[in-house]
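Journal club prep — side note

Before the paper discussion, L.F. wants everyone to see what a predicted structure for a comparable chain looks like in token form. Sequence:
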Amino acid sequence: MLKQYFKENTIEAGCDEAGRGCLAGPVYAAAVILPPDYKNEKLNDSKQLTEKKRDELRLEIERDAISFCVASMDNNEIDSINILKASILSMHKAVSGLKIIPELLLIDGNKFIPYKKIPHKCIVKGDATYMSIAAASILAKTYRDEFMYKIAKEFPEYHWEQNKGYPTKAHRTAIEKYGPTKYHRMSYKLTDSQLSLFE
């Protein structure tokens, strides 16, 4: 089972994001405060779980969490400030939406901009180490996937229901054939021909 806390007797919020490497769609982030004695053996980094398991766990997390919030920044915001800043600001938005002010933020990864005066700890592979970060990774991923399913109906040629906006061969080929949509991140290298210019 993943670790329940980083520091004992502290209100900790786990934070993680989803969608940083995608060519289209928003970046999503979640912040989750779990009960101090919380146990859930199924909780793990969202990338290690099947979609069905993630959807089941999302319901459990939303039911059991003391507080949680999910936030996002769209592709235009990503293009204007860059993906790293957009990811971090999405986490800030998620933390600001919590009903309780946490005493410590556990951040998945190695970069963060301090939020207000709340102490934070960056943890590489935190989503495979701490329950609260794993819970945040599951919420961020499932909410983002839900959004990508929705816009896939608007633009079926890009197969977002399968690739979720990630740079698969099919996705890049569709961009070359049909051009980018209003959901694409124009600051990213979108096509193979663009990539070959940099090789």
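L.F.'s comment for the group: The beta strands are 12-18, 27-33, 67-73, 104-108, 120-123. Keep this in mind when we get to the figures.
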